[in-house]
């Protein structure tokens, strides 16, 4: 039986006039995140691409309340907001903590781990463009092996991407999910579900970045879809401990069709120095992880 069709509301919370780069995957994802969460949302965010999207005080294209925090303290700020709202009896608000991979995988991990261990009542979102894009495309622990950055400009990054989803699952959040900006309905449905829950909820959103990854701005949606179609990004959710594949990843699991990773890599300049041996090694890693998810989903 197919899932019921979910109508996406017309009301916009990301208005014209954002300062993001052309083709920004974050702007596309954020539009549907806010459609799902609605007006009664307070977002807290560090210095990052999302800060650029929000604009410079006193003007902003974002039609919800927002708080700026320091780079490492997004989850701490969200915990404070959640506590303040609870004390004042304003239980109709959703607290949204949102940071990039650098502010989550690296500098923000301590505050996030502490808040998640305490099961603090907020939604935490890592939008992952796989480098410190706002400050010049520097390597982060989310940068994939073989990628060029401004801090690995000659010899590509040697270490694999940190498995942050496993780290967060170990904290037993009430809801954990992955999304990609190229699949907005999947984003909308997962954030609607997350909104209805309490305690800590963690969502990882893959957002392609044209200038940082080295592809034309017109190809953002295509590159994001290739990330999912090659299983470099797997769409799933863990709802109260129950794992299931979703969206395109579920379709792929049922059909048995998965594209080779080289189709994704060749679209981006950041992977131009990868050797055939490195590509084959990455393919083996992706295949192994995909089989793990298939087995976990009983496919």
Question: What are the main properties of this structure?
Answer:
alpha/beta; 299 residues; Rossmann fold
How does this structure look, described?
It is built from 12 helices and 8 strands. The protein has about 300 residues and is an alpha/beta fold. It has a single domain (about 25-295), classed as Rossmann fold. The chain has an 8-stranded mixed β-sheet with strand order 2-1-3-4-6-5-7-8, sandwiched between helices. Helix 2 (about 50-55) links the parallel strand 1 (about 40-45) and strand 2. Helix 1 packs parallel to helix 7 (about 185-195). The longest helix has 21 residues, at about 275-295. The model has no long low-confidence stretch (mean pLDDT about 95).
Structural class: alpha/beta
Question: Strand tally, please?
Answer: 8
Which percent range describes the beta-strand content?
Answer: 5-15%
Using the CA coordinates, give the radius of gyration.
Answer: 18 Å
The residue-averaged pLDDT reads 96
CATH superfamily: Thiamin diphosphate (ThDP)-binding fold, Pyr/PP domains
Biggest sheet, in brief? 8 strands, mixed
Question: What's the helix-strand series?
Answer: HEHEHEHHEHEHEHHEEHHH
